[in-house]
Structures are given as C-alpha cells and as structure tokens.
Hints:
Mean pLDDT: 98
Oligomer: single chain
Strand order of the largest sheet: 1-2-4-3-5-6-7-8
Helix content: 40-55%
Number of helices: 10
Order of helices and strands: EEEHEHEHEHHHHEHEHH
Amino acid sequence: xxxxTAQDGTSIFYKDWGPRDAQPIVFHHGWPLSGDDWDNQMLxxxxxxxRVIAHDRRGHGxxxxxxxxxxxxxxxxxxxxxxxxxxxxxxxxxxxxTGGGEVARYxxxxxxxxxxxxxxxxxVPPIMVKSDSNPGGLPIEVFDGFRASLVANRxxxxxDVPAGPFYGYNRPGAxxxxxxIDNWWRQGMSGAANAHYxxxxxxxxxxxxxxxxxxxxxxxxxxGTDDQIVPxxxxxxxxxxxxxxxxxxxxxxxxxxxxxxxxxxxNPDLLxxxxx
Length: 276
C-alpha cells in the first residue's frame, strides 16, 4: 500500500499486490466506493500470478479529500500519476460503473505502452443522462434525486442503494447479504460528501463517445441485463459499437453489482480475456 501525490497535491491511495515483474491489472472502482470493492477480483487474479493494483479515487476511501478535481479529466490524470509512479506497462485496466468511465478517459489518453487491454463492467459510457442526442438515457431528475438524498441523509442513502437496486436485492427471491450491504456503506461513508456529490455529475453527464472512438486496444464490455443503476440498453451495446476493437459480453438477469454477487460467473471470463 502507498500513496502518490497528484498534480494539485492531493494524495491518491493505492494497493499494490503481487510480483513486480508480472503483468499488472489495475482496478477502478464505482461511486461512492473505494479500491476495497475489488477485493474478490484482486485475490482471484493474484492467485493466477498477476500484479494487482487498486486506487481510491480522490475524495473516496483513503485518498485525500480535495476541494476540487471531482471530474473525469482530473480522475484520469490521477490514474496517470499512479501508473507513472509505478511505471506500469502493458497493463490491463478494469473499471466498474464510474470506474468504467475513468478507464475510458484514461486509456484514450494513455502514453504508448502503458495499456494492453481494458474492461468496462457495468460502466457508465457512452453517457447516462437523457438528452436530444441520447434519448434512451435517464432523466436529469434521477440524478438530482441522488444529490438531494445525499445531502438530506447520506448515511441512510448509503444503506438504501446497496440494500435495493445496486445488487438487485430488491428483486423477488434475491439472496440478500447484510455483510455486502454493510461493506458498501463502510466504503461510502469513508469518503467525502463533497466529492461524492460532485461525482454524480461526473458519472452521469460526462460524454465518453470520443474517448471510446479513440481507444485502439482490445476492450471487453460486460454488463448485466438487469442492471438498475446503469441500464443495459443505453450503455454496453452502444459502447461496444463505438470501440474500434470492442467485444460485448452480456449476463442475463445479473445486477449492477454482479462482480460481488456473481464473481464465480464473471471472474473466469475476465481472466480468459486477459490471457488471450
């Protein structure tokens, strides 16, 4: 574990496990979580001989709680600071949800040789919010509701999201894990309210269309068809079409948080793509 200092002086926390000469896999977490959300996948890939790295986005987890920089350009610059400091080459970048947007923005701008492949899991690209150019998106009122709930009672909001739509626990017959809900709450509450508030705009209103078009490395786009946070139809299929070398893998009936609820299903597919 360590920290890297970003361009504006903000401290970015990261975990770095495994052989230093192994191929690195970098994990990018969703809102409002931390690198801890990747524990299952990090242990899985560590067992398969990879070097695994996960950072906490600024204002999230153990990273610095900056007053500014809570938008995708700065998030991508922070990732570049970490990859430069660790001199990561031929890395595979895997991003979930907001982290998928961060991956798209970073990989599109990465220095030659830094990135070998990328994976977008339940990711927010191309763009979430509804507009004339994105008629299938979610109305801005949905995200205004997120902001209002965060301001009114962040602690309760961070119970309601994982206990309901994030993991599909609101579906009939779902096997609910209180530990998973508590861990989501723990990660969320360790971050800064201002960072989480502004990140809602970053993940919902950023247009990643041009980023996706610029990426030339192989990209696997994976998504659950019952994703209630980032609806399937307006995300994964559209991203796969925009990518030069994209491949779409859909999981029928799986939720947004399928990396946690169904790791035995998703992890082998991630490994197969990395090993190709």
